[in-house]
C-alpha cells in the first residue's frame, strides 16, 4: 500500500535519508512512500523531536496500533531505524530507542564535525539563487520559533544541517550526515540543556553568509565552532516517561490523513 505525499500537504521530510535530489521537493512534486517507510518516518520524527526518549521500549504491537498497521510493518520499520542507529534491537527483549553514553556522543560529534566540514567545502560559492532562498527561508523559520516552541526549534535546527547535506547532491554524504545528525539528536535529547537549540540560530545565519560569499575557510571554521558549541551545551536532564501510543498519536494521524 502506498501513500502519496504532496507539497501542499505534508511533503517528505528533509530528515528522510532516502529522499532524492538536491533539496526539498519542488512545488507540486509528490513523493510516494510505502507503509513501512511512512511508519519509519513517523518514528524517526518522534525520536528526532525528542518525543520518544532514549532507552524507551518500542513494542511492535503498540506501534502497529498507533499507526493502524501490522506488527510486521512495525518490525520492518524498527529494523530500518536500527540501521540508522536510532533504534537498538535486543535479543529476546525487543526494540528500544538507542541510548548512547556521553562518551559515545562525543565520538559521534567528532565524526559529524568531519562530515559537515566536507559539506561546507562542497557548497561554498556554489549555491544557486533558489538554494540560497531556501536556506534563508529556513533560517527565518528558525528565528520565528526561537524561544517560543522548543520542539519545533529542535526539529528545524537538525533539518538545517540535513538540508545543507542534500544541497551537495552527494547521496552518500546525505546518508552519513543524516545518521550522525540523528544520533546527535539522541545525545541532546538525553543531555541537552533546555532551549539549547535556540543558541545556534544566529550561527546558522553566519554559516549561510559565508557559503554565499564563497569563503570556504570561513564557512568551515564557523561550522566547526558551531558544532563544538552544540556539543558543549550538554547538561543531564531527567525526562518524564509517556505512553508510546500517546506519543505516536499525532504522527499516526498525519499519516492517516495522507492516505485519505
UniProtKB/TrEMBL annotation:
Keyword DNA-binding tagged: yes
A Pfam family this chain is assigned to: FCD
Ranges where the record places region Disordered: 1-31
Keywords: DNA-binding, Transcription, Transcription regulation
InterPro entries in alphabetical order: GntR_C, TF_FadR/GntR_C, Tscrpt_reg_HTH_GntR, WH-like_DNA-bd_sf, WH_DNA-bd_sf
Domain of life: Bacteria
Record-annotated HTH gntR-type domain positions: 33-100
Entry's Gene Ontology molecular function annotations: DNA binding; DNA-binding transcription factor activity
Polar residues: compositionally biased ranges: 1-16
PANTHER family for this protein: HTH-TYPE TRANSCRIPTIONAL REPRESSOR NANR, TRANSCRIPTIONAL REGULATOR, GNTR FAMILY
Protein name from the UniProt record: DNA-binding GntR family transcriptional regulator
Organism for this UniProt entry: Ancylobacter tetraedralis
